[in-house]
Specification:
- This protein is α/β, with parallel strands linked by helices.
- It has 3 domains: 174 residues, 2-Layer Sandwich (Chitobiase, domain 2), CATH 3.30.379.10; 165 residues, no CATH class; 233 residues, no CATH class.
- The strands form 5 sheets. It has a 6-stranded mixed beta sheet. A 6-stranded parallel beta sheet has the order 14-19-18-17-16-15, with helices on one face. A 3-stranded antiparallel beta sheet has the order 4-3-12, with no helix packed on it.
- The radius of gyration is 27 Å and the shape is globular.
Length: 673
């Protein structure tokens, strides 16, 4: 398969945009031709960790595509008779050809051909190249861009099976001169637990190891996941403004001395009856409080004004006067935003967006007297602040916050009713019209347990909508890693974070193409489950009637959302796909179908356990043996297939199952049998 690209040179406009301009065709840069090596990979004599890792990644993927292992040499060892030299990173040759990484933007790279040679270079250093906080990864990102274009590699899920590289005998690229950087300033799927394990800073508990991953497999998975995320150019976190729940614990710390700083309750008292309560909202119109916030600020860092992680706001007349009018009637799908949310009955429960925006503006103006460049982070646009302001308040680019669709169940998860979907887009536009900086930080990826519960259309469309309307970055909470049942959704988000210009159809095609002869049937399979999610939106929402423990509720009722008959059409499609994939001499296509089958079988076993608990957290004595048997089957299955990385089993056991149902005693009793 012969690959080529258009001919480019670059120019940077006065606005900092990367412009790609056409060049006339000239020499070809060939790495492999007809199964024969035509190039060596050249690194500096004293290359950095980033440069070295980038060279390794290039060589490994070229070999996976062609079967040819390119020789890697240092600059001083470069042979004179090789047709093509691929210079990776900061080399003397790059400087001689006018490519100085010191002048490149953060995370940017240059891909330039000079004659038959190729240069891939960006800023780099000796910090861990896979660290998402490290912006000096331009060389590595340039290699990944080159590989995507020339080998058409697609990284579907962690591990070797999830790396799809079409087989070819030739890898070449036309003359090119291009500089580019990620479209989004920061790009992240939160993976905190696995990140710590990948860095050998954390191990898993004995209980989790019994129920899911073994220690070694958890570490292997974490390392593979880290590589996958960097291949998709996750990073830029050093450029992301800080956010967080800034005032948690303030009631305990300051409530006794300054009760007027805190929210007025409907009964006329301030704060909370419990002095140790840690989530009391502020009375943001209190000038003494405003001055205190600015006075304790260091004068340089961003001022973070994130609300406590609890709905309900101050009910005093002054704060209410800062609010806009409430809609009458409130949208049916947003009753928890505008009406009494179960956890906010003692406080004002309407929209307080104008109040929050005015608070941010007041703090910015006060702080600007000390530092005109102060950045104020409102942290989260969610809960009572989710509706856009309605009073015409204007902010500026020194105010930042993250858009978090939240509150009412109809607004939190996809798929959602069409009216709700249109409404959240209007709220994004309304907040953006204030002139503030915005990023996207939803929570809906927490959803779905280990079930084939996913969609890509609405969530993908909203991501692209936000990108087209001023989104500077995105961070998703969290990466649950259910690759074998929710793979299209996870892959889509990784691709959009890296390349938001891609269409949803393009991404879906990429994913299904990796199943070879079974691509068409696999598309039908994934469409079956997406359609199932849309047809069952309301039953799925019933899983979340217990607002506080919604994820625990899901695991207890998964069997109701996915009865046995729901799996039958899906099983038939997978069997058809498996038979089709086996017609190809390459075993990887059938192995990928089998990977998806394992995910579906795991979901059925989890439903079987859920059916024993049948909505309860604990089992009655009469069901203990039945629960043990269902758990034995589930654990045995996980141990057999854990090395496939079909599921982030630690997320399953520590985040969903063990908090959701009392399973530890069952696990322990099975272990001693």
């Amino acid at each position: 398969m012969k690959q080529s690209v258009n001919h480019f040179r670059f120019a940077v406009s006065s606005f900092g945009l990367i412009l790609l301009l056409a060049l006339p065709a000239s020499a070809q840069v060939r790495l492999v031709q007809n199964g024969q090596a035509q190039a060596v990979i050249v690194t500096a004599d004293a290359t950095t960790k980033t440069g070295s890792y980038a060279a390794e990644e290039l060589a490994a993927h070229v070999e996976k595509a062609t079967g040819v292992k390119l020789k890697r040499v240092t600059e001083s060892e470069t042979p004179a008779d090789v047709p093509t030299r691929v210079f990776i990173g900061e080399t003397k040759a790059a400087l001689l050809n006018g490519i100085d990484s010191a002048h490149l933007p953060r995370e940017a790279y240059v891909i330039r051909s000079v004659g038959n040679d190729l240069f891939i270079i960006g800023r780099e250093d000796n910090v861990e190249p896979l660290d998402e906080d490290n912006p000096n990864a331009g060389t590595l990102f340039g290699v990944y861009e080159f590989l995507e274009r020339t080998t058409h590699v697609r990284w579907l899920w962690p591990g070797d099976l999830g790396t799809f590289v079409p087989k070819t005998g030739t890898i070449e690229i036309s003359s090119i001169n291009e500089m580019a950087a990620p479209a989004l300033a920061y790009r992240s799927l939160v993976w905190s637990r696995m990140r710590a394990i990948a860095r050998d800073r954390q191990t898993i508990s004995e209980e989790d190891a019994r129920l899911g991953f073994s220690q070694q497999t958890a570490h292997d998975y974490a390392v593979a996941l880290q590589a996958l995320l960097r291949r998709h150019r996750m990073g830029g976190l050093d450029a992301m403004p800080p956010s967080g729940h800034s005032f948690t614990g303030w009631w305990k710390k300051y409530g006794k001395e300054h009760p007027d700083w805190f929210a007025l309750r409907k009964d006329g008292t301030r704060g909370h009856p419990d002095p140790d309560y840690d989530a009391v909202s502020l009375c943001v119109t209190n000038e003494e409080l405003q001055d205190f916030i600015v006075e304790q600020w260091d004068g340089e860092s961003p001022i973070v004004l994130g609300p406590v992680d609890r709905p309900g706001r101050c009910n005093c007349q002054k704060c209410r006067a800062w609010d806009g009018p409430q809609p009458d009637p409130a949208p049916w799908f947003a009753k928890y935003v505008y009406e009494t949310e179960p956890r906010a009955q003692d406080y004002f429960a309407g929209a307080t967006s104008d109040r929050a925006a005015r608070f941010w503006k007041v703090i910015q103006e006060k702080a600007a007297k000390r530092n005109p460049n102060v950045l104020v982070s409102g942290s989260f646009i969610y809960e009572n602040e989710f509706p856009a302001p309605v009073t015409g308040i204007k902010l500026n680019n020194r105010v930042y916050a993250e858009f978090v669709q939240w509150q009412d169940p109809h607004l939190r998860w996809f798929p959602m009713p069409d009216e709700a979907f249109d409404w959240i887009k209007a709220q994004w536009l309304g907040w953006k019209a204030t002139g503030m900086r915005m990023s996207y930080r939803p929570n809906y990826l927490h959803d779905g347990y280990v079930m084939p519960h996913f969609e890509t259309r609405q969530s993908g469309e909203f991501f692209k909508f936000a990108y087209e309307h001023g989104m500077e970055g995105a961070r998703f909470d969290s990466l649950t890693g259910q690759w074998a049942v929710q793979g299209p959704r996870l892959y889509m988000h990784l691709r959009l974070l890296a390349k938001p210009e891609l269409s949803i159809d393009e991404i879906q095609y990429e994913y299904c193409f990796a199943f070879g002869p079974a691509a068409g049937t696999m598309k039908q399979y994934f469409a079956y489950w997406e359609d199932y999610a849309f047809r069952n939106t309301m039953p799925f929402l019933d899983l979340y009637k217990d607002y506080v423990r919604r994820y625990a509720n899901y695991i207890r009722k998964a069997h109701l959302a996915f009865p046995p008959e729901s799996f039958r059409p899906a099983e038939a499609l997978l069997q058809q796909a498996y038979d089709e994939a086996k017609t190809d001499p390459l075993p990887e296509f059938a192995e990928r179908v089998r990977f998806i089958q394992v995910g579906l079988e795991h979901a059925q076993l989890a439903c079987k356990l859920a059916a024993v608990f049948d909505g309860d957290k604990t089992l009655p004595e009469s069901k203990i043996e039945e629960g043990k048997q269902a758990l034995r089957e589930l654990i045995a299955f996980r141990k057999k297939y854990e090395g496939m990385f079909f599921s982030d089993l630690l997320h399953v056991t520590s985040y969903w199952e063990r908090p959701g149902i009392d399973v530890d005693e069952l696990v322990a009793s099975i272990a001693t049998e």
